[in-house]
């Protein structure tokens, strides 16, 4: 009898930080990978590192474009025939203060962090139902406590709500939903290194894999993880 093919793990925002670390941990756990980001050069290098076309495919994708999201899922199905895990991880932040930053950057942040995550849910919904798979979203501690002057915080509050809304929408389908809520992480997200000993991207990736590797009847809905030194 032929063995079941290795499961497929799709990640948006996969070229650096939490996305890239999760890709490496997922590869070690035996997943085939569909990696997406706007930065195609870094993405392709990561895919080659993790096994090339047979084990990891790189797909340039702007998560704010519905056609790109559809093409991403079509590429996953074309390459591997299934999607078992979809990680809506793409996102970015900006300076605090409603008088700070460029308004066009605000627009891009809201579209990426909120609309982009919602499009990933929509694009992967049917393949996840078919595999009784797992949806994950990158939230934030900032999506649990409002940060002064932070539109980014507001976008992550939206993602917190989206995680619970998606859980209810997937109920009775066998699909699990997990919201990953990191505190301060030392990644390219920040312009300068954090002043405290922050989380590493690998710390968050381990939390992702913990949720994914539970038995099918166990749905870890939220993981909020802070560095020990983070005061709030």
What does this structure look like?
The chain is α/β, with parallel strands linked by helices and 232 residues long. It has one domain (8-225): Rossmann fold (3-Layer(aba) Sandwich), CATH 3.40.50. It is built from six helices and seven strands, in the order E-H-E-H-E-H-E-H-E-H-E-H-E. The protein has helices at 17-28, 40-49, 66-80, 103-131, 151-170, 201-212; strands at residues 8-11, 32-37, 56-60, 85-88, 134-138, 176-182, 222-225. Helix 1 crosses helix 6 (201-212). The mean pLDDT is 94.
How far apart are the termini? 53 Å
Order of helix and strand elements from N to C terminus: EHEHEHEHEHEHE
CATH topology: Rossmann fold
Q: How many domains make up the coordinates?
A: 1
Beta-strand residue fraction: 15-25%
Strand segment tally: 7
Low-confidence stretches are none
- Main structural class: alpha/beta
- What's the gyration radius in Å? 17 Å
**Strands in their spatial order, largest beta sheet:** 3-2-1-4-5-6-7
What quaternary form is this?
single chain
